[in-house]
């Protein structure tokens, strides 16, 4: 059974490039995050984040207007009305070789309720697959995957590329 759906060439080229240029710019404000998931302490795993929306509240007044159209593109692509944005953020992970214990700690669900979907938009080409259920998806620039938020998933860290940049969302439908 397929656990996720993938959309290639998700955004128009000009918008895709604007997002890439903004999030990969040396002056973009990334913030240290001690952990990758909210569910357990992770000793050797960290990431940089930029939160746009957290629990239906805009947390980045300056950057949210750039990101907001993505939700409308997503709504149109899946032909479903979005009721609310629970979470919308960007993650930047850097090259790292993880132990088996570290990899196991990456697996999580976003929300247990069945009326939420999660998406992951790949800002850049990278290694560091996303695992959804028991399926693997390689990061490809301007592609998006989406799945029910209560499915176990994990984002692997790049081992070859310097960085993996994604935008993730948790949306009520």
Structural account:
By secondary structure, the chain is of the alpha+beta class. The chain has one domain: Jelly Rolls, CATH 2.60.120.620. Helices cover 19% and strands 34% of the residues. It has 3 helices and 11 strands, in the order βαβββαβαββββββ. The protein has helices at 13-23, 64-78, 100-106; strands at 5-7, 31-33, 47-54, 57-58, 84-94, 116-122, 130-132, 135-137, 144-148, 153-155, 163-172. Strands 1, 2, 3, 4, 5, 6, 9 and 11 form an 8-stranded antiparallel sheet that branches. It has a 3-stranded antiparallel sheet with strand order 8-7-10, with no helix packed on it. A hairpin with a 2-residue loop joins β7 and β8 (135-137). The mean pLDDT is 93.
Proportion of beta-strand residues = 25-35%
Looking at the structure, the CATH topology is Jelly Rolls
Annotated CATH architecture: Sandwich
The termini sit apart by 22 Å
The total tally of domains equals 1
User: What is the number of beta strands?
Assistant: 11
Contiguous uncertain segments of 5+ residues: none
SSE ordering: EHEEEHEHEEEEEE
**Text of the CATH class:** Mainly Beta
Give the count of helical stretches.
3
Cα gyration radius (Å): 15 Å
Average of the residue pLDDT scores:
93
């Amino acid at each position: 059974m397929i656990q996720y759906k993938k959309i290639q060439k998700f955004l128009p080229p000009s918008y895709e490039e604007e997002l890439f240029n903004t999030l990969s710019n040396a002056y973009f404000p990334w913030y240290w995050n001690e952990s990758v998931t909210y569910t357990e302490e992770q000793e050797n795993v960290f990431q940089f984040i930029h939160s746009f929306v957290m629990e239906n509240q805009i947390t980045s007044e300056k950057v949210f207007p750039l990101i907001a159209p993505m939700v409308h593109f997503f709504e149109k692509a899946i032909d479903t009305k979005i009721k609310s944005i629970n979470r919308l953020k960007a993650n930047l992970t850097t090259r790292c070789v993880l132990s088996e214990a570290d990899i196991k700690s990456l697996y999580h669900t976003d929300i247990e309720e069945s009326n939420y979907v999660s998406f992951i938009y790949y800002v850049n080409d990278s290694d560091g697959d996303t695992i959804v259920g028991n399926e693997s998806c390689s990061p490809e620039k301007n592609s998006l995957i989406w799945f029910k938020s209560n499915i176990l998933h994990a984002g692997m860290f790049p081992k070859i590329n310097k960085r993996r940049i994604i935008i993730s969302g948790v949306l009520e439908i």
